[in-house]
Amino acid sequence: MHYCPKCKSRIEIQRTFNQKIHFSCSKCKIEDIVDSKKNLDEAFLEFLIKFDNDEIPTKKEVGSTLEKEGMLQTEEEINKMIGDSKIGDITRSVLFSKRHYVSHFKVIEEPEPEMGSTVEDSGLDKRIIESLESKGIKKFYKFQEDAIHHIVSGDNIVITAPTASGKTEAFVVPIMEKIASSKSSLIQAIFVYPTKSLSRDQYPKIKEIADKMNIQCAVFDGDTKQTERQDILSSPPQVIITNFDVLHYHLWHRTRFAALLNTARFLAVDEAHVYSGIFGSNVHYIIKRLKRIAPKLQMIAASATLDNALSFCQMLFGVKMVQVLGSGKKGKTEFSMLFPSLMTQRALMIDILKKLTTKHHKTLVFSNSHLNSELLALQARRQKVDIKVHRAGLMANYRRSVENMFKSDKLLAISATPTLELGIDVGNVDGVISSTIPVNRLTQRIGRAARKGQGGYAFLILGNDPISQYYKNHPSDYFEDTEQVYIDPKNPFVEEFQVIAMACDKPIAKHELPEHKDVIQRHVGAGNLVLIENRYVPNYDQIKSILEEYSIRGIGRSIDIFLNDKKVGERVLPIALEELHPHAVYFLAGTRYQVKETGYPEKMTAKLEYLPKNYPYYTKALTEEWPTIETVFEKRFAKGIEVAFCKLHIQKRVYGYVNLELGQEVGQGQKIILEKPLDYDFVTKGIVFKAPRPLGEISKAENEEYVEASGYHATEHVVIEGSNMITGGVSQDLGGISLGTSGLVFVYDSAIGGNGASRALYDRLEKAFERSLDIVTECPCKNESGCPRCTFSYRCGNNNEYLHKMSAREILQRIKDGEKTEIIEPSEGDKPLV
């Protein structure tokens, strides 16, 4: 602990992005910057000596130094960004705080959406008109009118529009109109939502219109009570609200519920953009299976605004579709993009959160992982912020209580993962703070603010990572790097499993599904399917365990998590090994626990125990990985670099972990080696390329092998981290390995079998190389290994060791200059760096 030499209160210490240490006291207002090549204690001693000698600079002098070094802007530069905009006191205090770099500022004022005809003149059933007018809807937006026309005409349609813009009415109204005209008492429509929470949140809106039309609707999911299930099965409603997990389970079990679905005429899938990666690849097949038993399905998708929404949905649904684009109406929002020069990303997010909640502005804070959402809430509560966590993996009743507390003004702030990007109604929101994500998803998040017409605040807080440093210097590129959602229907594990499930739903005719004939024959050879009277029938005794263990949200087997002998959660392999190894710190519902026992591989369990509240650490796993190329699907040259898209076999080992101090977001920690390592291997898809040798750096080095291998390792990091938004924010779905001095760099899908992420990078590798060079060239750090803003990765399984920034810079420059390379097979002596 370090204390202010003037008032003895705790001194604030931050490592700045140019590798210096900033000391400051919020009470005395004294501050100084010290070179961080020394360790922290030495740097603090230098600060004390300067204080004793009366050499501490004034706040103005410190600010001037920071401006010259590009860490802050002048007031004139910030005022130029603001222009003629009238901004609130909170935004002004943030912009001029001299604690961070303001990369971009603008006031978002959405234009009035284009209007369509009045509800009264729409020609719809009078009961629908009365229902809409009772909710204050007198006129349709033009996109709603267009969507209604296409659905009534029988078109398959994708509706893309921002949060709270009226997408629900755009598909519910015409579906209800057509159901009412059919006068059928059987199931007519299936409305699918990605979570049970969202299903139950939307149910009242749907039921309100249905009741006016004398149409029955019900929610059928894992939370539906047994008595309600019996009512649904004995007297089916015309509209079922559910999720794909439920559809998958009941289809392959051929339950009474599945038998009722064959009369369905409409499949409406809300928040379709969520079905990316492995989950989306499974959903693609579940939709295909639904069409086998309900062949007259009309497909309707509602999605956030994406560049590739139409092509993505056509792949997801397997049909040609029409796209309708919409917009909504909301209040003025003051938007700031900030780079944390003098503090960590999380510290800056909490600092702004305190400013908003002190003025009683209800605020959502979005992080991109469950660990970061938990850490933010933990540290914010220590600063007396009224905040709770909302993320996947928490019990449904806990999440609902958080939503209700916020909605009823009993809670001021929520620390959320993407769970609240979805359309769950949490009431009035004044401010949104977000970590770095693609601009499309940012639009979804900040669309939560000012929905009631009031002024709103939105802050994008860039991180302590390579892509954030790039956006600091090139903010306009952020708004051009739009998200590309993706699925991989040819994932061999998904395809093989889903073909078995299809046969369980309904035997496969001998000449049916020619696109899957090879997979069908493999299952016949393995005894999973049996040909009987020209139909492929499942061998239930052999495949039952396969079907029961499979998760459509992730292929790997799960490790069950227990606390006091009660199951409190689960994590899917292989990520489970990194989070649930012995002595790992695990976060759950705002509380930290330690793993006291891991049963893997004999038992798929992990047991937790409580940690003291003041425990200063969290953990990150140390890993070793070895890749083997099994099949090369295709090759090409990116600039002069040969790159192959492959099927890869990955051998993974968790051999230890590091303790990281709370508040430290990325970097290096104290290494601890496990007594018994955890091993796992899996097959996936990925790319491999051969990087050029950094001859200039090698010629200057005493240890040539270290400089070369560390250059390739740093290149692997920066290519993955720096390409994040180019590939649609998929870096969290990627792993990487550089093989010693071979120059071979592997980037692979972290999901078993592949999820499409590495394919996105394969297609855009030239741009990824260019951006990677910009990142290492523009970063002002002087460290040989670089820093969190250029070469470090928070996913690094090697504790961010064996990195050489200048070697990576030369490698990337040689790529830009067109040097040619060819892929060679690795030798056994090449040590992998991950």
UniProtKB/TrEMBL annotation:
One of its GO terms (biological process) is interstrand cross-link repair. InterPro entries: DEAD/DEAH_box_helicase_dom (IPR011545), Helicase_ATP-bd (IPR014001), Helicase_C-like (IPR001650), MZB (IPR018973), P-loop_NTPase (IPR027417). Keywords: ATP-binding, Helicase, Hydrolase, Nucleotide-binding. The keyword ATP-binding applies. Transmembrane segments: none annotated. SUPFAM superfamilies: P-loop containing nucleoside triphosphate hydrolases. Residues 348-493 form the Helicase C-terminal domain. The keyword ATP-binding applies. Residues 148-324 form the Helicase ATP-binding domain. It comes from the Archaea. One of its GO terms (molecular function) is 3'-5' DNA helicase activity. It holds the Pfam family DEAD. This is DEAD/DEAH box helicase. It comes from Nitrosotalea sinensis.
